[in-house]
Write a structure and sequence with these properties.
Shape: globular
Number of strands: 9
Radius of gyration: 20 Å
Order of helices and strands: HHHEHEHEHEHEHEEHEHHEHH
Strand content: 5-15%
Structural class: alpha/beta
Bound molecules: N-carbamoyl-L-aspartate
Largest sheet: 5 strands, parallel
Oligomer: single chain
Helix content: 25-40%
Number of helices: 13
Length: 358
């Protein structure tokens, strides 16, 4: 788990990064950033299947490139040509609103031809296997496949069968890499750094791919991670992951710079994990009183969709001085643009090499 050591070079603050937060968090998020869009930006892998195999320097590269796309997305004319001529297919085997929309907007802004496959009404319903579906699609020469699937490992299995680049948009309880990257971008822009922060990840850790990807990413960048939730929602072996484990929200929030709340993933529970939602809110729901245990300038995050009055009080979620939940949505589009651009660069390079050899 998150034990990778990060070199001093990687830990150095980026030139132009905001080192000290002053005023509201919005100042960090909205300050103009100098685009650093260089030819040396690259990813080693052909696919983005998880945070697990990313080096800290690749995470920094992705976030630096995302910063430039945040600037682009705030302009009147938002087009880039990084994916022109490429076909992006979004295959979502689970319901999704924000993630699918975010990938679709990201692809369109970069000039891709984007197609959304409605897997709930597809041949999968008629008994076709995941691999058959992948092979059928592969024959149509897509360039980027964005896949969400309820089974852990399904996306990486599919990636082995196709010729294009694959992005994991969430597989079971395993990983959700673009969510962790957009969370990291939000944190880096509000706090001015992505190291030496105390991050409390709170709630249903056991069923959450968001938690898993965030633990990996924040660990690689040398942050202090605290998992907070009832023992029934804590994954077995969490204490050996190099994180702190806390079963009381007030204690878990102490001195936290970042408070990350998670949804109760009822669809992944096959039994009673909590006595009642009322009781859960009383003990683990984030409200103003509990938030007072965190640092005065702590930010509140949530990947959405939110259950107001279950894991978070609506007033906190809407408090623009504390909550960066809407900013996370904005950062999501930029991070997905960056990931798809870097994977498309690899795809072009691999194809050019094949042509040269032919
Ligand atoms: C998350 C997911 O699907 O894992 N949401 C998202 O990507 N917007 C978290 C969740 O569903 O609770």
């Amino acid at each position: 788990m998150p034990t990778a050591r990060v070199t001093a070079a990687v830990l150095r603050e980026r030139p132009g990064a905001i080192c000290q937060r002053n005023g509201s968090h919005a100042e960090g998020l909205f300050r103009e950033r100098r685009p650093i869009y260089t030819a040396t930006m690259s990813l080693r892998a052909r696919h983005l299947l998880g945070i697990e195999h990313l080096e800290p320097v690749e995470i920094t590269t992705l976030l630096d490139l995302s910063d430039t796309f945040v600037d682009l997305n705030r302009r009147d004319v938002k087009h880039d040509t990084a994916l022109t001529g490429l076909t992006q297919v979004n295959m979502f085997f689970e319901h999704s609103t924000r993630t699918q929309a975010s990938f679709e907007i990201a692809g369109k802004r970069l000039g891709a031809d984007v197609m959304n496959m409605h897997m709930q009404s597809s041949s999968v319903k008629k008994g076709e296997t995941l691999i058959d579906t992948a092979m059928t699609l592969n024959a149509m020469h897509p360039d980027l496949l964005v896949v969400r699937h309820p089974s852990s490992g399904a996306v990486s299995l599919l990636a082995q069968k196709v010729n294009c680049a694959v992005i994991n948009a969430g597989d079971g309880r395993h990983e959700h890499p673009t969510q962790a990257l957009l969370d990291a971008l939000t944190i880096r822009r509000t706090k001015g750094r992505l190291q030496r922060l105390t991050v409390a990840i709170c709630g249903d850790i056991a069923h959450s791919r968001v938690a898993r990807s965030n633990i990996l990413l924040l660990g690689k960048m040398e942050n202090r991670i605290r998992l907070v939730g009832p023992p029934t929602l804590m994954p077995a072996g969490a204490a050996e992951w190099g994180v702190e484990v806390c079963t009381n929200l007030e204690d878990g929030l102490k001195d936290a710079d970042v408070v990350m709340m998670l949804r109760l993933q009822k669809e992944r529970m096959d039994g009673a994990f909590i006595p009642s939602e009322r009781e859960y809110y009383h003990r683990f729901g984030l409200d103003g009183d509990k938030l007072r245990h965190a640092r005065d300038d702590a930010i509140v995050m949530h990947p959405g969709p939110m259950n107001r009055g279950v894991e978070i009080d609506g007033t906190i979620a809407d408090d623009i001085n504390r909550s960066v939940i809407q900013d996370q949505v904005e950062m999501g589009v930029a991070v997905r643009m960056a990931a798809m651009k870097l994977l498309a660069d690899n795809l072009h390079a691999a194809r050019a090499e094949t042509e040269e050899m032919a």
